[in-house]
Amino acid sequence: MLQKIRGNDQKGFTLIELMIVIAIIGILAAIAIPNFIAYRKRGYNSQANADVKNAFTSCQAYFVDYTGMDCSLNGASSSGWKKSEDTACSITGPSTALSIHCTHPEGDKQFSTDDTGEITEWHYE
After folding, report:
1. Residue of 86, 82, 91 lying closest to 107 (CA atoms)
2. Where are the transmembrane segments (predicted)?
3. Which conformational region is residue 86 in: left (phi greater than 0), alpha (psi within -120 to 50 degrees), or beta?
4. In the chain, N or C: fewer CB atoms in 10 Å?
């Protein structure tokens, strides 16, 4: 069809057609890339949040087996907890003063819980 409009046998696209396509791709990339980065960050935060929930559950199981003992990373692991890759977690304390903190280096929040099981989050940059 382009050949009929141009009136000759040249093949290919004109410079303006290529520039329009490149501009459209640029606009789509400008919209998509920031959203993609935000989705990844939310995923990392969810991973840290899930680690806190699972560690709390494992520590509760640990306290049933070892009454009066402090739960730690090893104690939670022995009760079936497996920390997600790259997530940094700390677990300390007995059942009455439990403290669990998890964060992911690519996320922007730290998640914590205590012996009540209520999860709190702190936003950082």
Report:
1. 86
2. 12-37
3. left
4. C
